[in-house]
Amino acid sequence: MNSSVTRRTFATRVGAVLSSLGAASSVLIKGASAQTSGGQNSAAQNSVADASAIRKMNAEGKPGGEKDVIMPVIVHNGLIYVSGQGAHDTRDAKEWTIESHTTMVMDKIKKMVEIGGGTTDTIVQANVYLTKIEHWDGMHKVFSTYFPHGGPARTTVAVAALPGDSLVEINCIAVVARK
């Protein structure tokens, strides 16, 4: 079987699951909203409406602008979606290591999840993209230090190249931490 077909099939299936989860949660929220106070504008309805709002934030935690094409952090229905973070190392390429790039990326991931209201312990899923599969051991060694209480579900794949000549890129989904 062609590997691009396999990746495409996997991406389609994951997209379908995420879409159905989003659709299901929207139906549940509308149902909960209709059941409260006979349609009156109550505090319960407002909290349900706020929970279903989509918050798009930039890397500083401020609301994203209309012209921003990619948002690093999106919070919706109690989940935090963090877009792919790369190292974008400005040092000489001879100084790059998978360990240093993974540390840079995981520090960014941690910051983005915290902007969304979570912690590294609330990360439930991560995708790791490596420019060389041989980097897996070095990446895993650093990655695991960010999860002393057990890590998230994770997929790791090798890709041809990454933006900014990063050796690794990671995106994730986390849960908003309870207060």
Which secondary structure elements does this structure contain, and how are they paired or packed?
Layout: H1 3-35, H2 43-52, E1 55-57, E2 73-76, E3 79-86, H3 98-116, E4 123-130, H4 136-145, E5 153-158, E6 168-175
Parallel strand pairs: 4-5
Antiparallel strand pairs: 1-2, 2-3, 3-6, 4-6
Helix pairs in contact: 1-2, 3-4
Summarize the amount of helix as a percent range. 40-55%
**Which class of secondary structure composition applies to the elements?**
alpha+beta
Radius of gyration: 19 Å
Low-confidence stretches: 23-48
In spatial order, strands of the major sheet run: 1-2-3-6-4-5
Order of helices and strands: HHEEEHEHEE
Beta-sheet strand percentage?
15-25%
Largest sheet: 6 strands, mixed
Distance from N terminus to C terminus (CA atoms, Å) equals: 48 Å
Mean pLDDT over the residues: 82
Question: Given the structure, what is the number of helices?
Answer: 4
Number of strands: 6
Q: So what's the overall shape?
A: globular
